[in-house]
């Protein structure tokens, strides 16, 4: 028997050798090394087969030319991928067939007979059909001539644990890994392996990659202490001690919203070095697809992403992002595993010009090692951050496992630290017994798939099973060769996603939510003080629609709106109330009140203790301005009505110090702008707020807490990124003989929640907590401030109500769903942002003792504008420091969009005293200034009082507020802040406009050239570069505030701006 087994093994080895290395006999020219020729039918295009013209006839059997071809689909693909039932056409049966009877026998020598029981091993090597673990691989592959197919037969002897766990250097980890590919691919894989080995030690490549990871991707990502989540588990399990401490590695803050960018960028750089002009990739959840599309846009490479039709339906926003970034998205029936097979086919068709960019730690060597190496930055940062935060290592690392890239990225640095526990969590789907899961390690068997040996989901016949998970990125039927773990179901993942959203204001991807779900089982068994780090590998905005439709629809039901009876009178309660809208109507325009205040001059209302009858009727609009927020035209004299204890507003102070003059008088006045145009009812709470604000500015404890939160929660500092391709673009169109200006982007889009708004929301929410307020109200237009406020309130355990106009809700549905998932109550208000603002103020005034109004704009009564500006000024402070580091000086020009002005002042304020730095604000010209459909307040507006302060406003001749318009919803406000107004009047800043169409074009330009999708608001600033750049000297440094990311605007771009060819 032993002799017979050895004979079978020898015979089997001969068969494999013949299959992979044979040459055609009987006068035919050798097939090896010949160019692959296209076949006449797409279905019959060979993947790994080297052919001559004589073999272009379709054959329904098998041929020997480095692989076996069945229905034109070849090596490295499962039976399902091949479109053939391998139970019907098994290689063992073919080998037992009389080869001479087949029509292709004249090309190939007869194949030796092999026992049928070994057919599946052969299929595994040749086709990629999986091998069940009970089929003894060693009987067939015990001795080979090269490292590709061998594996370690014994794992018992550990001479050194660290190298042992890291593999043998040839892509083998014990019996896993290897290169199960035909000879056709061996040369290309060897070239890739050599290139990888070179770049890992190449200083120039590493320097470029490090810079890109810092300035483009936004590394390092924070290690955030999830205090409320830690407290939740402590209370849940009633531990007598403090319980474990839970930290999140915030990969969700990386560019493109997940860890996938780390690998995609590095591999795209390798593709460029190899001379490839085109990249192909496969994606499931879309995260790897978006990352690949962005990297290719940045590096000027063509990009094709394959995606299953099932996944496209679930991840439509990511599909639109890929298209906007310039990628071609190719749809095919099935899911990620089918997309992967198709991408490999496409790659093999033209190995010289196409690069297959794998995002997973699967496939033939060196792909798994390469992906792991580029993702290992996660673990390296984690070790360093843990050392800084608590002076040691983590006790437990937790990550979700699909194929394993994010898990290995976190784990690999610690595989030699045996005191660090590594926990991977797979997707149990609807339950392991249901058959609807992706728990490869829990119930799978060992086999070969897509070129390497690992655990696979397969049936008793070795057929690949269809995986399932609510986290689409986990739907893969295998894992990488290094991975080993536990499981969490769809329901558990959803609950974990909602829990983190409500407790920490962080919406994790459903993939990462599986790791978070396992904390329920892990925490009770850990000692007090144990440090647990969970890889929050991606952000969950992509899953919002899926959650709302399938997972937790009750969460997203619209809250009922109260309908108060109209009362046609007026009351004095610190303001005028009309039509019953809110208990008090302070700070609202006549339009908001639903009545023409010019007809109310006989109403018995007192102002500052004086009956209205004693005030001249011609001054009624000033009264309405103070009480109701009706704007004042410049020709109405404010001084005739408001002689109060406050200093006069109409005079410009003497300039004793230019810098101090430009920064205001400290009481919220900038020249004639600003002030507190509010009734006496609000004076006391505003004074309390001002006192508290002045205190926290110099309070060490508050500032330390805020600084830590900005670093670990928000993700500051945000990069100052040199936009090289955008710079080159303007150099070319300007036809400059020199280098032209250099364009840099301040990447506020990489902040938590996707915009600069979180800087202020977090700071003010901390003040609200200090003031003892239990509830926060806010108004939002584009939804960015609403999401930021909801997140800050979730983190600080405060109730949150966000008011939003019906028009904006329709445009920004994804942000509305995000706010609700974060625990906020979203109240719909008829109209746009200005109407929502009025309603929020009404709500605040009715509950002054318990409610805090969190303004996101630099408008309103003092100290609101000053407070928002101060919290946003971190942008400019970082910019000054980063400019000093990058080029040793200051920027020459700063450019920002202007709605009400928060992001512009955030960038400008630090440089107000630097007169050699130009400050350029860009307003929304909408459909054109002559159309009346715009938000260009500074360009065509007049001075008036609105929502409690004096500034420039959009108003008609009667002082009625005009409805603003912009494709960038966040710019639709009929006024600007007092400090912005003052900068215009003094000439310290320049203000221009950009139309909707110009903003759309600028958005698409940056997306295609740099792989960054900016918000449509920020796109207005980018649009002005067309006019600005030609006027600047060579080498001038221009910094544009990329104040938000554009995911929220994808639907708007489709409907109004993006060419149909992209859709």
Task: Describe the 3D structure.
The chain has 1063 residues and is of the alpha/beta class. It has 41 helices and 30 strands. The longest helix is centred in the first third of the chain and has 20 residues, at 2-21. The radius of gyration is 32 Å and the shape is globular.
Which percent range describes the beta-strand content? 5-15%
Across the major sheet, the strand order is: 3-4-14-9-10-13
Helix/strand class: alpha/beta
Q: Percent helix among the residues?
A: 25-40%
Overall pLDDT metric: 77
Helix count?
41
CA radius of gyration: 32 Å
Enzyme class: lyase
Catalytic activity: (1S,2R)-1-C-(indol-3-yl)glycerol 3-phosphate + L-serine = D-glyceraldehyde 3-phosphate + L-tryptophan + H2O
EC number: 4.2.1.20
InterPro entries: Trp_synth_b_CS (IPR006653), Trp_synth_beta (IPR006654), Trp_synth_beta/beta-like (IPR023026), TrpB-like_PALP (IPR001926), TrpB-like_PALP_sf (IPR036052)
Considering the chains and any ligands shown, give keywords for the structure:
30 strands, alpha/beta, amino-acid biosynthesis, 1063 residues, 41 helices, Trp_synth_b_CS, six-stranded mixed β-sheet
Quick overview of this protein structure:
With 1063 residues, the protein is α/β, with parallel strands linked by helices.
SSE blueprint and pairings:
Layout: H1 2-21, H2 79-82, H3 91-95, H4 119-126, H5 161-165, E1 172-173, E2 176-177, H6 183-199, H7 203-217, E3 223-225, H8 227-236, E4 245-250, H9 260-273, E5 278-283, H10 287-299, E6 302-308, H11 309-314, H12 316-324, E7 328-332, H13 336-349, E8 354-356, H14 367-375, H15 377-390, E9 396-400, H16 405-411, E10 421-429, H17 440-443, E11 445-449, E12 452-456, E13 486-489, H18 490-504, H19 510-517, H20 519-522, E14 531-536, H21 544-551, H22 590-593, E15 606-607, E16 610-611, H23 620-627, H24 658-662, E17 669-670, E18 673-674, H25 680-697, H26 700-714, E19 720-722, H27 724-734, E20 742-747, H28 757-770, E21 775-780, H29 784-795, E22 799-805, H30 806-811, H31 813-821, E23 825-829, H32 833-845, E24 851-853, H33 864-872, H34 874-887, E25 893-897, H35 902-908, E26 918-926, H36 937-940, E27 942-946, E28 949-953, H37 978-986, E29 989-995, H38 996-1010, H39 1016-1023, H40 1025-1028, E30 1037-1042, H41 1050-1057
Parallel strand pairs: 4-14, 5-6, 5-8, 6-7, 9-10, 9-14, 10-13, 20-30, 21-22, 21-24, 22-23, 25-26, 25-30, 26-29
Antiparallel strand pairs: 1-2, 3-4, 11-12, 15-16, 17-18, 19-20, 27-28
Helix pairs in contact: 7-9, 8-18, 9-10, 9-14, 10-12, 10-38, 14-16, 15-16, 18-19, 18-29, 26-28, 27-38, 28-29, 28-33, 29-31, 33-35, 34-35, 38-39
């Amino acid at each position: 028997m032993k002799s017979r087994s050895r004979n079978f093994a020898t015979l089997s080895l001969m068969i494999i050798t013949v299959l992979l290395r044979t040459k055609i006999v009987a006068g035919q020219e050798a097939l090896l090394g010949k160019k692959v020729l296209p076949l006449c039918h797409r279905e019959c295009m060979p993947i790994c087969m080297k052919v001559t013209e004589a073999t272009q006839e379709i054959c329904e059997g098998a041929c020997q030319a480095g692989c076996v071809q069945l229905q034109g689909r070849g090596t490295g693909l499962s039976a399902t991928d091949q479109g053939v039932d391998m139970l019907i056409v098994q290689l063992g049966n073919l080998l037992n067939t009389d080869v001479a009877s087949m029509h292709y026998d004249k090309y190939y020598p007869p194949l030796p007979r092999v026992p049928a029981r070994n057919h599946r091993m052969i299929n595994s090597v040749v086709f990629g059909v999986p091998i069940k673990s009970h089929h003894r691989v060693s009987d067939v592959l015990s001795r080979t001539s090269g490292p590709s197919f061998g594996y370690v037969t014994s794992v018992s002897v550990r001479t050194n644990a660290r190298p042992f766990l890291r593999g043998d250097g040839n892509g083998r980890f014990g019996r896993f890994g290897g290169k199960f590919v035909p000879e056709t691919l061996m040369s290309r894989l060897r070239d890739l392996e050599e290139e990888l080995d070179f770049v890992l030690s190449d200083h120039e490549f590493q320097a470029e990659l490090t810079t890109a990871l810092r300035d483009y991707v936004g590394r390092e990502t924070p290690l955030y202490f999830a205090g409320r989540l830690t407290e939740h588990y402590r209370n849940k399990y009633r531990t007598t001690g403090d319980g474990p401490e839970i930290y999140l590695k915030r990969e969700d803050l990386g560019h493109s919203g997940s860890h996938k960018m780390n690998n995609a960028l590095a591999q795209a750089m390798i593709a460029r070095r190899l001379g490839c002009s085109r990249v192909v990739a496969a994606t499931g959840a879309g995260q790897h697809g978006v990352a690949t599309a962005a990297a290719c846009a940045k590096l000027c490479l063509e990009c094709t992403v394959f995606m299953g039709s099932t996944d496209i339906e679930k991840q439509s926003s990511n599909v639109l992002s890929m298209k906007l970034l310039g990628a071609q998205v190719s749809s095919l029936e099935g899911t990620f595993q089918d997309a992967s097979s198709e991408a490999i086919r496409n790659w093999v068709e033209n190995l010289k010009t196409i690069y297959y960019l794998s995002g997973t730690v699967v496939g033939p060597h060196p792909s798994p090692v390469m992906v792991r190496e580029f993702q290992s930055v996660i673990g390296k940062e984690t070790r360093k951050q843990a050392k800084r935060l608590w002076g040691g290592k983590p006790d437990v690392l937790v990550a979700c496992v699909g194929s394993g890239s994010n898990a290995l990225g976190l784990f690999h640095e610690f595989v030699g630290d045996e005191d660090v526990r590594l926990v991977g969590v797979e997707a149990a789907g609807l339950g392991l017994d249901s058959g609807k899961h992706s728990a490869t390690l829990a119930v799978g068997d060992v086999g070969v798939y897509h070129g390497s040996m690992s655990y696979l989901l397969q049936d008793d016949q070795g057929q690949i099973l269809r995986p399932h998970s609510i986290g689409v990125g986990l739907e893969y039927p295998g894992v990488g060769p290094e991975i080993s773990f536990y499981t969490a179901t769809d329901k558990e993942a959803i609950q974990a996603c909602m829990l983190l959203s409500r407790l920490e204001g962080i919406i994790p991807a459903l993939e990462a939510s599986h790791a978070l779900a396992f904390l329920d089982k892990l925490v009770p068994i850990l000692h007090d003080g144990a440090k647990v780090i969970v890889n929050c590998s991606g952000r969950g905005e992509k899953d919002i629609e899926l959650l709302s439709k399938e997972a937790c629809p009750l969460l997203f039901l619209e809250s009922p709106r109260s309908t108060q009876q109209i009362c046609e009178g007026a009351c004095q309660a610190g303001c005028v109330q009309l039509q019953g809208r809110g208990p008090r109507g302070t700070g609202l325009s006549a339009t908001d009140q639903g009545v023409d205040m010019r007809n109310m001059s006989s109403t018995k209302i007192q102002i500052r203790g004086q009956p209205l009858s004693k005030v001249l009727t011609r001054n009624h609009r000033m009264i309405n301005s103070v009480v109701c927020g009706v704007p004042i035209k410049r020709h109405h004299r404010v001084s005739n009505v408001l002689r109060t204890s406050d200093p006069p507003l109409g005079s410009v102070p003497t300039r004793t110090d230019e810098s101090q003059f430009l920064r205001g008088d400290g009481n919220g006045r900038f020249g004639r702008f600003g002030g507190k145009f509010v009734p006496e009812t609000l004076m006391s709470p505003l004074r309390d707020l001002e006192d508290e604000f002045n205190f926290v500015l110099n309070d060490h404890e508050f500032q330390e807490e805020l600084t830590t939160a900005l670093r670990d929660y928000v993700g500051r500092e945000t990069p100052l990124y040199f936009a090289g391709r955008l710079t080159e673009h303007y150099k070319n169109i300007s036809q400059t003989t020199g280098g032209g200006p250099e364009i840099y982007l301040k990447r506020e889009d990489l902040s938590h929640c996707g915009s600069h708004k979180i800087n202020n929301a977090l700071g003010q929410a901390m003040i609200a907590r200090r003031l003892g307020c239990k509830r926060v109200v806010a108004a939002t237009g584009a939804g960015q401030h609403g999401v930021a406020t909801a997140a800050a309130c979730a983190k600080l355990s405060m109730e949150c109500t966000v008011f939003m106009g019906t028009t904006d809700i329709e445009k920004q549905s994804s942000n509305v769903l995000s706010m609700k998932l974060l625990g906020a109550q979203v109240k719909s208000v008829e109209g746009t942002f200005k109407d929502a603002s009025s309603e929020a103020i009404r709500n605040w005034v009715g509950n002054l003792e318990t409610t805090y109004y969190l303004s996101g704009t630099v408008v309103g009564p003092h100290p609101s504008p000053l407070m928002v500006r101060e919290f946003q000024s971190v942008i400019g402070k970082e910019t000054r420091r980063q400019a000093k580091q990058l080029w040793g000086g200051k920027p020459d020009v700063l450019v920002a969009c202007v709605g009400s002005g928060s992001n512009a002042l955030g960038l400008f304020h630090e440089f107000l005293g630097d007169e050699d730095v130009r400050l350029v604000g860009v307003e929304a010209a909408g459909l054109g200034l002559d159309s009346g459909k715009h938000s260009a307040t500074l360009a065509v507006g007049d001075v008036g009082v609105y929502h409690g302060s004096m500034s420039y406003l959009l108003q008609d001749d009667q002082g009625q507020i005009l409805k603003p318009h912009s494709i960038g919803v966040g710019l639709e406000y009929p006024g600007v802040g007092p400090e912005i107004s003052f900068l215009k009047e003094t000439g310290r800043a320049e203000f221009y406009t950009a139309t909707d169409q110009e903003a759309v074009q600028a958005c698409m330009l940056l997306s295609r050239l740099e792989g960054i999708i900016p918000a449509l608001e920020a796109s207005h600033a980018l649009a002005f570069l067309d006019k600005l750049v030609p006027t600047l000297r060579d080498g001038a440094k221009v910094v544009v505030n990329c104040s938000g990311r554009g995911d929220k605007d994808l639907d708007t771009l489709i409907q109004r701006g993006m060419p149909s060819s992209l859709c």
